Amino acid sequence: MDDTEVVIAPVDLAARVDEALAVQALAFGLDDAEVAVRRHIVVRHLLSPGARALGATTADGRLVGFVYGMPNDRSHWWSTVVEPYLRVSGSEGWLADSFVITELHVHPAYQGRGVGRRLITALTDGSDLPRSILSAIDTESPARALYRSLGYTDLARRVHFPSAPRPYAVMGAPLPLRRGSGGGN
Ligand SMILES: CC(C)(COP(=O)(O)OP(=O)(O)OC[C@H]1O[C@@H](n2cnc3c(N)ncnc32)[C@H](O)[C@@H]1OP(=O)(O)O)[C@@H](O)C(=O)NCCC(=O)NCCS
């Protein structure tokens, strides 16, 4: 189902960081301490060169989903953590000229309606880079199914980020993203 009542558009996520983190807390599971840490990280991320964010907003203005990302910077923490894993799998080249999806979250009440697919497709369509990379918890989740349907494949698995209890998979896809079974953007 495509939820056309939810509008996908650029959003000042730094100004709405508390709303965004409330969505992420419900969708992904964050406690109050993690939200406090994330608030600083998100605001800093959004100041990175080329960082862009899209929000999914209801007719009455509520933020029910968001995505943001930026061109990969090989000196950034995320890139330095995944680089050795990609080197081992021979996919280090994916770190160059690549648009990183940093966060994608949809409020549980609005999941399964095509909002997540519209968010990530619209964000990457706005990039002129030839590829996109991201990390996702290394388990069979709705997120992993969505990413695969968009053309992302596994570049490395069992990737350990310091402080994250669960291993991640790093995935990459050529841009523009494949149009999946869910259809439009
Ligand atoms: C991942 C997430 C953003 C997807 O958003 P969404 O709006 O529910 O996704 P969509 O409705 O656009 O669904 C797109 C695809 O995702 C997959 N998907 C969605 N829900 C699924 C489910 N319950 N089980 C399996 N696959 C699922 C399907 O491939 C679906 O495509 P289809 O509709 O053609 O079958 C959302 O589930 C979410 O916020 N999850 C928790 C947070 C999270 O894991 N974020 C990603 C961090 S890496």
UniProtKB/TrEMBL annotation:
GO molecular function, a single term: acyltransferase activity, transferring groups other than amino-acyl groups
UniProt keyword terms in alphabetical order: Transferase
InterPro entries given in the database record: Acyl_CoA_acyltransferase, GNAT_dom
DNA damage as UniProt keyword: no
Keyword Transferase: yes
Domain N-acetyltransferase: 6-176
SUPFAM superfamilies to which the protein is assigned, alphabetical: Acyl-CoA N-acyltransferases (Nat)
Protein's name according to its UniProt entry: Acetyltransferase
